[in-house]
Design a protein that fits this description.
By secondary structure, the chain is mostly helical. It has helices spanning 2-12, 14-19, 22-32, 44-55, 63-94, 103-116, 120-123, 130-140, 145-173, 181-204. The protein has one domain. The protein is built from ten helices and no strands.
């Protein structure tokens, strides 16, 4: 049990992930963007803190390398999610609930998709859980390949560009901010929780 708790902490602690290096960061981003069992992994604040750690010099890679690596991981991850939904959609929809899969996550993503249409692929980049399941659902409904690729690139560009770049320049200008990582995480979690709850009640209404 202690080993499981340690693994869980390592997978969800963004500071631990970032200090492990860019390769680990890109693998986490790849998984969180398209593997249905990886929806719990950090996303928004991981990108922002990667920028912060890059701006303060903890991460040695230049901003351009951070952006390209994470952008590539996000786009490829969503592509894997799309292909998973396209070829294994029925199996996913019919699988029973488990620790790493909840049917309600797919259902709430479907409601989100119904409301925003194809632009859900762009908007969902900034929403945890929904971000993981949106490309899968796009594959299930057989969205046009060219439409998906275009929106996947646009959403990935905006998500990675905004969060990593803003974090990078904030860390560069105010390096002391690295001592307040926990407050940054709480800030993002607060925004995320508010957005999800607000969206849930809107859809329910």
């Amino acid at each position: 049990m202690d080993q499981i708790n340690l693994l869980w902490h390592q997978l969800t602690d963004s500071e631990t992930i970032i200090r492990s290096g860019l390769l680990v960061i890109t693998l986490i981003v790849f998984a969180e963007n398209g593997l249905f069992f990886a929806f719990f992994l950090p996303g928004d604040y991981l990108l922002f803190l990667t920028g912060v750690f890059g701006g303060t010099g903890v991460l040695k890679e230049p901003l351009s390398q951070l952006l390209l690596s994470i952008f590539g991981a996000a786009v490829i991850g969503s592509l894997v999610g799309y292909l998973t939904g396209r070829f294994f959609g029925k199996s996913i929809e019919n699988r029973p609930d488990s620790l790493l899969f909840k049917k309600k996550n797919l259902d709430s993503t479907r409601d989100f998709f119904d409301k925003y249409g194809v632009m859900a692929l762009v908007i969902s980049r900034f929403l945890p859980i929904v971000r993981t399941f949106t490309p899968i659902l796009a594959g299930i409904i057989k969205m046009s390949w060219f439409t998906f690729v275009g929106l996947n690139l646009l959403g990935g560009f905006l998500w990675v560009g905004i969060l990593v770049t803003s974090g990078y320049y904030l860390g560069h200008e105010f390096p002391w901010i690295i001592n307040y990582v926990q407050y940054i995480i709480l800030f993002f979690l607060g925004i995320t929780t508010f957005t999800i709850i607000r969206g849930y009640f809107k859809l329910k209404k």
